[in-house]
Structure formats: C-alpha cells, structure tokens
TetR family transcriptional regulator
Amino acid sequence: MQQRARSAEDKARRAEDLLVAAQALAVELGGARHITLAAVTERAGLHPSGVRRYFASKEELLLELAERGWHQWRDAIRAEIGPRTGLDPSRTAAVLGDTIAALPLFCDLLTHVPLSLEGDVDIERARRYKINAFAAHDDIVQALDQASVMTREQIENLLPAALAFAANFWQVAHPTPTLARLYEQVPQWGHVAFDFAPRLSRLLTATAIGLTETISPG
C-alpha cells in the first residue's frame, strides 16, 4: 500500500514537472504552438518515451494547462475583487481585463482549445475540461454579480467578450517569426507593435459600458 502511494506521488510529481516545463517553454518560445513533446520531456528531465505514461498527447498536456488557466483566472478575479462592492462597468471590465492579461499562456491557449485541443483528446478528457471550465466560468459570474452594479445578464455577456478579445488580441500581438519579419518589411501592417493589454482594456471597457446603456425604442 505504501509503495502504491509512493508510486502515485511519483507519477503526480512527474506529470507536474512536464506541465511546468511546457509552461516555461511556451513563454520562452513565444506561444504554445511552438511546443513539442520532445522539448518538454527534455526540459523536465524525462525520457521521451516516458511521457505517454502521464499524457496521451501534446494536446492533452496543453488542455490540462488551459484547465488550470481557468482556475487561475477565477482565483485572480476573486483576489482582485476582495471585499469590494458597487463596481461600475469600467471597474468591472478592469477586473476582467487586468486579471486575464496577467495570464498570457491562458490567453494563448484560449485560441487553441476550440481549434484543436478539445477535439484531439478522448471524450472523457474533453468532458473533464468542460466540467471544470464551466464551473470556473460560473464562479466568476457569481463573484462579479456580487461585486458589480452590472446585472447578471450583462456580466454573462461581458465574460465571453473578455475571452474572445483576449484570445484574438494575444495572437495578433505575438506573431510568428515569419509575420514578424513581414511587419518589419511593411510597417503599416505592424501588428508586431500591437499593445495587447491596453487594447484589451479599451475594448472591454467600451463593451461593458455599452452593455449597460439603455437604448430607447426608435
């Protein structure tokens, strides 16, 4: 029994080592799209053939990081709100924007999850991701509903806007090396200079204010 417990602990520790390695590589290489399992296992100090004992594929490993990103975002929002109440639309948007911008890998993975990660793992792993992501989403809505003057419906509309803006803006602000060279050659296409956090803040604030405006019938 003791040996089995040690074995489970060892497996959990090695899986964690792989996740930490993947996260570090994503930051160093400029995005999750550049990660390979070979590089992850080398960084984690494991034999390449051993990774399958912990993750069935690169997609499963990255989906685990995306799931953790939801938990990190929820916890950051709760910490940012603290005991405050009466947040106006601008401050509500700032809570969402500031906290998600501080999680660059999560912003990056928000693009990859619907494009490939969810569809390239087995159904039970996809189910677990959905359960945990939706639970974190609902926790965020609940926290903001208690802290903001915005209605729950408005918050439920603002949240997907934050996710969409963060996913798209992060990719545009972190172009591939080919695109970065192209933008150097054609400066007017210079998305390489795209300032991610300020643009996210401006658009999210405008969306929050727009959601709270009452449009009179014409």
Summary: The radius of gyration is 20 Å. The first helix runs from residue 2 to 29. DSSP finds nine helices and no strands in the chain.
